[in-house]
Amino acid sequence: MSLRTELIDAFNDGHIGNGIGFTRQDVISFFPNSSPNYTGCFLSNSEMRTGQHSPTYKHFTVRVARGVYRIHPAALQARMQERALLTFVSRVPG
Question: What is the CATH number of the domain that holds 31?
């Protein structure tokens, strides 16, 4: 399982963050076997707005403040559907 998938699962399952977002330190603490430099770079490179310099990363986080991130709703939805936690999504007309 990739770090991306593990992070999204940890967030969905309530093991990391506060239900709205998470901090860089949350990620470092949750993945103690990964280098803090690696997890910090991972978050920066996965960021949707500023991580565009890293084309090999799937951009799925949104930085809301220094060291504070959210997972993009589309990434949360996709992973929840993969895990069969979410089976139906209705769209609001608009």
Answer: 1.10.10
